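FAQ: What does the model actually see?

It sees only this:
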Amino acid sequence: MAVGLAAAPRQAAAQASSPVYERVTEPTLKAGMDFPEPKGPVILTIGGKIAADGPIRFDLPTLESLGLVRFTTLTSWTVEPSVFEGVLLSALLEAVGADPAATTLRLIALNEFESTTPAADARTWPVMLALKRDGEYMSRRDRGPIWVIYPQHAFPELGQRDYLSRWVWQLKSIMVE
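And it is asked to produce this:
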C-alpha cells in the first residue's frame, strides 16, 4: 500500500507549479513502484511507519529518481544565499508510503545528532533534502551528502530559532513515527 502523508498528493500537485522552487527533473520513481536495491553507497535510509516491511535504502541515483527541485535561499550557516538542489521531503514520504497518521519524523545525522520534526512540515512547506549547493554535490565537510533545507526565502519564519534544529545536515536516516 503506497500512501503519502495526509494531503501530500494534493499539495504535491499544487507544488508542481510552485513559485517557491523550480522543477529540475521529473520523477521516474513514484509511489507504488518497487525500489531498486542500491548499487552504490547508501546515503539515506528511511524506516518506521512506511508501506515497506522494513527500511528502504537509497543510493544517490535512486534518491534523485524521485525528481529534483531547486531554489535559492539564505541559511543561518551561510554568508550569502545559496542555490540548493535536491528532492522534496514530501515526494520521498509519498514514494515510501509514509503513514498518513504519522506525526513525527526523526531525522538522524551521521554524527548521531537527532531532530524530532513534525511530519506536518513536509505538508506545509516544500522542505528539500538538498544534495547540491551552488551546483556541486555536497561532501561531508560541506554538510552533505544530504542537508535538510527549508525555503526560508519564501517563508522568513523558517529562519527563526524554533526551526533551526530541523535543518539537519549530514542526514543519514529518517524514521517516520
